[in-house]
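ok posting inputs for the magnesium ion job
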Amino acid sequence: MNPVVRSLRQVGASLAGAKAGLASRWNAMGPTQRLSAYVLGVLALYLAPWWTEIPLLGSIVDTPGTQFTTVLSDRVIIFVLVALGLNVVVGLAGLLDLGYVGFYAVGAYTTAILTSSHASLPWLLALPVSIAVSMVFGVILGAPTLRLRGDYLAIVTLGFGEIIRLSAKNAEWLGGSRGINDIKHPPSIGPLKFGVVDPKPYYWLGLTMVFAVMFLLHRLENSRVGRAWVAIREDEDAAELMGVDTFRFKLWAFAIGAAVGGLAGVQYAGKVGFINPDNFPLLLSILFLAAVVLGGSGNMHGAILGGILVSYLPERLRNFQDKRVFVFGVALVLVMVFRPEGLLPKKVGTRKAVAAPGEGGAQ
Amino acid sequence: MRDWLLYRTFWDLTITGLALGSIYSLVALGYTLVYGVLRLINFAHSEIFMVGTFGALMASQEFLGIPMLEDGGYPYRTGFMLLVFLVFILLCAMVFSGLGAVALERVAYKSLRGNGDLFGAVVLAFLTGFVVSMVFVDDTLANVIVAAILTAPITMGYMSLFRRGKQSPRLAFLISAIGASTAIAEAMAIWGPEKREQYQTPRILEKDVLFSFLGADVRVDNVIVIVGALLMMVALTLFVNKSRLGRGVRAVAQDAETARILGVNVDMIILVTFALGGVMAGGAAMLFTLVYEQSRFNIGFILGVKSFTAAVLGGIGNLKGALLGGLVLGLVENYASAVFGGQWKDVVAFVVLLVVLMFRPTGLLGESLGRARV
Amino acid sequence: GDDTSSDTTAAAGGDVTCDGLKIAFFGALTGDAGNLGQNIKKGVDLAVAEFNEANPGCQVGIEAYDSQGDPAQAPALADKAVADASVVGIVGPAFSGESKAVNGKFDEAGLPIVTPSATNPDLANQGWKIFHRALAGDDKQGPGIVQKITADGKAKVGVIDDNSEYGKGLADIVQAGLGAAAVEMNSLDPEGSDYSAIVTAAKDAGVDGIFFGGYYAAAGKLAKQLKDGGVDAQLYFADGVLDVGFIEAAGPAAEGSIIMCPCAPKDSNADFLAAFKAKFNEDPATYAAEAYDAATAFLDAIAAGKQDRASILEFLKTYDKAGVTKQIKWDEKGEVAGNAIYAYTIESGAIVGKPGLIG
Amino acid sequence: MLLEVRDLHVFYGRIEALKGISFGVNQGEIVTLIGANGAGKTTTMRTISGVRTVAQGSIFFEGRDITGIAPHERVKLGICQAPEGRGIFPGMTVRENLEMGTYVRGGKDSQKSADLEHVFHLFPRLKERIDQNGGTLSGGEQQMLAIGRALMSRPRLLLLDEPSMGLAPMLIAQIFQIVRSINEEGISVLLVEQNATQALRAANRAYVLETGYVVKSGSGSELLDDPAVRAAYLGG
Amino acid sequence: MTNDVLLQFSDITMQFGGVTALSEVTIDIHRGEILGLIGPNGAGKTTCFNVMTGVYKPTKGTVRFDGQDIVPLKRYEITLAGIARTFQNIRLFGNMTALENVMVGADARKASSVGGALLRTPRQRAEDKESRDRAMELLTFMGIADRAGDAARNLPYGYQRRLEIARALGTEPKLLCLDEPAAGFNPAEKQELNELILKIREQGYTVLLIEHDMSVVMNVSDRVAVLDFGRKIAEGLPADVRANPDVIAAYLGVPDAS
Ligand SMILES: Nc1ncnc2c1ncn2[C@@H]1O[C@H](COP(=O)(O)OP(=O)(O)OP(=O)(O)O)[C@@H](O)[C@H]1O
Ligand SMILES: Nc1ncnc2c1ncn2[C@@H]1O[C@H](COP(=O)(O)OP(=O)(O)OP(=O)(O)O)[C@@H](O)[C@H]1O
Ligand SMILES: [Mg+2]
Ligand SMILES: [Mg+2]
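and the output
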């Protein structure tokens, strides 16, 4: 056999082996051990700004030419938040949204308007208002369009994202193409100074947001709401005939997705302090979608992985200069061809789902 | 004053809108054909169009050597030779787009249908080798050599890694399409004749005013575009509805599995579909370069979004819908520019789309493929 | 300040010593706007090369921060620059959008910047102590354009923009300056291909002049389509169009267009032109000379023994020297003193500088 | 032997649906496969048509190994199937659906219309609905259309996968009659049926499939009388 | 048997373009009975289902369910009113587990929504548990609990058919509509299905059954209605219907068809 094939097979086998090994070790752990593993993992994430200091790891993760921590705070966290939100819409409810950047923009712009151009509320107050406004936009978009199926919805949402961007660009009231600057930063808490230079506090804030969103979305996913979403994704007609108010739940998916997207926008605006319409191009919607599917649509952890890769890799690959985007395109094709379900696909049908006695059937 | 602009210049706007709309229509056909057969938004179709425009421009500049920037030096303004040149340019554009579309299918989509093939594997292997070697050397020639050496072994690896007989989820096709689209456009930006700059072409067709219609000047290029698009559309419709291969296309569109059982070579039909879409995009590209005399590596993106919008507006999967949708979109854009200003034209276009879909959820003419019953 | 005459080699002293200092370029080197950044970078490269040759004891390095002109990518780069203590001056950021996203960081870090190309008037009004630019802002360029159009005696001028921050801002200034003579014709999409609606509107309005605020690629397409559409008005453009790309795109339709720019014609300083040609084997393109002046200001500071950000910033406050493009001397907002606006035209397919201009 | 299947193994992912089955159809025969849900009958049919790939084993048609050739080539050789679930093209009219049967054959228009008449003679209902879209037909009408379409290709071997599924009792009887008359025209038939009694009556020979294996075979009447078969498949 | 009418299907006409699928069909379904609906292919049986469950709005006529006019209701509202169905072609949620499929049905009767789920209110938790327990119960009842944790698409055909019934029962219907549940079953399997349907009725459900297999219809139905060309041609006890010459001519063919 061809040596490349063989080595590919071997790599595959050893990866599978490692995965199985980890899984079995994980299963063997007691609850306290698991808890401490979680705590350690979370701690390591909060300490990420210092990863570049660790000898070997540092040279692997550090981004050439850009500040690693800023990449985390300005790009990675934002993309992860967005991917989490979009995963609700696309991955769970199966609604193809190609204009998700619109909600991100609404969140950012609302914060900008409220804290800089038309009022000077504190960021902390702008946060809930912006999320609420994003949700309202989700409902405004969803209400007339959710009757549409699949790809019709895709093109309408794409149009919606463009309408938002172009409106911001053409409305003097929203700063036009000049954008809005002097957006307020989050308030400093004791030693945590949210200023212009140090990105670390923003990263910690963003990471906390990610955990909060994960926690809440996890609850939704494992409830009647999450089941309704997946049922709609799988067969909308059948879902409706099984008593699912499909319209209402699709609207919820849109609204919740929009809220998370808006949250990402708030975080971005509060960090950078300046936004303009060019921050929200159509291409970004597509990139967001690519993140979700690349990671594994329908699986929260997959979406997170996708968000990280899509935002971090271009910075890591700065050496490729203007070939970065080309490499990214080729990589998308390769991943889809060999892992069409994404890097971390959603697993359905684990025995875990059976809680009652008499489980563990055939197969 | 603005308020009366539409009124005063209505026919001017109509004619130029129809000309622009014709190009949308032709590109929309490619989306509609592929969507009809594979239920796939062929996101990279816009890049097929872009490649076609480069084909047309290269035909006139590199192959025919028509001089740039001349002022009357070009001998074939009219007459038979002009026709020959136009046909040659058209063929070049069609060949570029057609081959591009076929290659795209085999590289980015075929294996996702559970049907990995050698050509796709070779191209993917080459690209892999190329990218991997880029990590180590930043020199295109060296990369090509390394990639060429690595192609054979990686190809074998890929052939054995393909997930045969397994249909991938639809989103995977979409993302693969997006990846391919990005890669093609960027490749043109990195290695194409003009890199990231605009690619110009000399004037081939003098833009004389042919006649006046209700006060509007009708230029020869407008007429060629509109008539050319209509002709290609008619030819395609005849082909799909009347020919045996066309019947195969429709059968695969509705139920590929059964079509296979009845003896339709599904892979071949899909290839034909892509080729047809590519050829139409090539036609559109040629007409486009005739009118605008330029292209750029990223020209496809916006035009692609517009054309896909046109396809949806008319009813995706419906050939006549693509025509209607394209023309309507071209007109709406022009009228909107006159009434609200150019910065609002896309907003108006999308609002029109939204309104149309709210009242006709499957577009103006509806999908042509019947949906199965509940 | 240093008062050496306008020798192209900066700080010819030769006895300066320093260690590990860097000047940074900040702007697009790749991506759609990469060309402009490449021009600028070459200006910086030339200035630094000349300096290093003249000062063996002080080899200044160049760091390039490639933002692709994207305000979303800029912050991570800016933080890197701020964190790198050896970077003592920045030539850039090249565009106004990214400037707004990151200049606050430079300001807080006290890292001086001289932008060779960002002309948005707002930038000077943000209270940034570190901000300087090496050319006039659009608030100077706009009136210059108006003056030129008025001097040409145009009575009805269509004003078009590309809806970008730069183009729209400039078009607004021009429109306001022209007053009743202006005919508002709104925006076009620079990425689009078809401008027939605007051509129709221009024909309908019967304009004798047209100003377009935007960049060269769109300007080329517009010029061509206007001509084909039978509009014979005089075309006016601003600095974003000053590029051979405009002529390539417009073809014969470019002939006679007038392009205004706060940048000096490339032959206004023969030494610079010769040095640039010798190093890069090409003519300096738009903003290369401004970049050279910007870099020179930093290099002069280093030559004067200023080797940290604070003292270099201090040095720039009193800097006053004839650069290759103009007298380089900044007011307290960072606006440059020499703010001449030059007029160029296209003759036989080449950009020609017109002497005797507005200033 | 017209069709011969030797030691066929077929997988769905990791699930082995066929675990080495062998059987054959002679020229002019009606052979039926019976078995419970999931026994692998449909898989067998689809593998013969070539839309499922063979992991191991081989298929011979008129002595020629066709294991590796493409499905459309097999139709050219004369194997045509009316698939389980009918596979009607929903957006094509009844006529167009029928014409799809002649896809590989091409053939003259006069020939086509003769074949069309023949099908209408067998299923007058289809003639009434000739311009209706296939997708809006009732289940039974679709079944007729599927069989008619397969006949249009003038097969040498007709594969029928549960043709009586979803049909009214009267039609079921009719379908079996049609199968017989098709067979009398010289077309060999491989029939998969749940309606085992009728199928065994119509068949020359029969095989019983169970979870991917052939567990019994014999003439139709032998199996009809087999007590085990009666108990399991004929309802007592 | 009571004469209490659960569903009143009166004077329904259903046209598609030129095709009249149902014309003036009137059927009453009594509480607690099993009504068999038979008729030749294309007679309009599935169309009846589609009208009852709101998939189609009838061209003419009214449908009253439990005293309420259900024609104007949305599909899910009809389900909540108490009609559940299975599909002639199986339509499960393929990428959900069997258990989750049934839970979706059981969720129909629950009220907690996004707010409850986010806050994990006691009520939401209680409802979630109820759904889960009920779903498990139904899977056990249908005899497929051993595969509760498997993705529906990986289940064998017979299991899928049963799962469809379990899911429909999950919505706690008053009327269960089964569209050809025995299609593709062999006689032994049909026998099991007969027993299952009877068992379902014992639980208090009313059942409307479309089926072509006489061994099923005649054995389980209390009454049988016959459609032909969109019209009702007979209605009555199984034995009577079976002997009805019109029915024999239109549908059964030879009197003994088993
Ligand atoms: N697409 C598929 N994916 C996975 N497994 C499948 C698939 N199709 C069939 N199977 C499995 O293969 C086995 C054989 O299925 P097949 O459809 O051939 O049976 P059959 O005898 O035709 O049954 P029926 O009487 O229900 O039509 C079954 O266990 C089934 O679950
Ligand atoms: N959406 C539709 N458009 C047009 N005609 C339709 C539509 N739905 C059903 N029909 C027609 O209505 C008639 C009744 O169809 P229906 O599916 O109700 O029959 P059925 O009694 O269920 O038959 P079967 O037993 O074969 O399933 C058929 O002739 C069919 O062609
Ligand atoms: Mg089967
Ligand atoms: Mg039916």
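notes: Residues 200 and 220 of chain D are 5 Å apart (CA to CA). Residues D 138-139; E 45-46, 88 surround magnesium ion (ligand 4) (CB under 6 Å).
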